[in-house]
Write a structure and sequence with these properties.
There is one protein chain. By secondary structure, the chain is an alpha+beta fold. The chain has one domain: Glutaredoxin, CATH 3.40.30.10. The chain is built from eleven helices and four strands. A four-stranded mixed β-sheet has the order 2-1-3-4, with helices on one face. Strand 1, helix 5 and strand 2 form a beta-alpha-beta unit. The longest helix is centred in the C-terminal third of the chain and has 21 residues. It is globular.
Length: 196
Amino acid sequence: MSKERQSVVTPERFASGLTWEEWLQAIRRNRDKFEYNYQETVLTPEDVAALRELVAAPDGPAKVLALAEDWCPDVFRGLPVMAKMAQAAGMELRIFFRDQNLDIMDEFLKDGQFRSIPTFVFYTRDHRYICHWIERPALADSEMHLVQEILQLREKDPEEFRRQYEAFQRGPVWARWRQETVREIIEMLRAKVRPS
């Protein structure tokens, strides 16, 4: 995000976003996948302690804005992770549909050009920008070839593609990506927030 430009995310705009519960009611697709990933996200006592310590800091992440769409696998894996983290830490989470809020999305483009989701933007209690996280953890990027192998089946055998992709989304690699999201976000926030 450009420091010179005024953000379109005012405190009032932030407050207009959906809560996690409101998001689940508003989406049209994949609610079962959002709920599954929420239930399967495991926060260790160390994760919870680290998050609470970060939030308690004077310039800590009291608020988090999420940009999302219900059709995106990175979103239905990653947004439930963020919801669980926010709830455990006492962060206020507000969720915005990306395609209805492109002015927000365009402040947080991946590599300055891609409207990648989910995007999580962290703010202090008094709504100062801290940092943001985009799309998926680095580990998932490095393992995307595992998804590509399954995607190649889409044209040849759609039924087998669906079976394998569903299994992948409930398997150990997907679970590892959820855990890595937790670790990476905590690490990013620790680099930005001064402890109290």
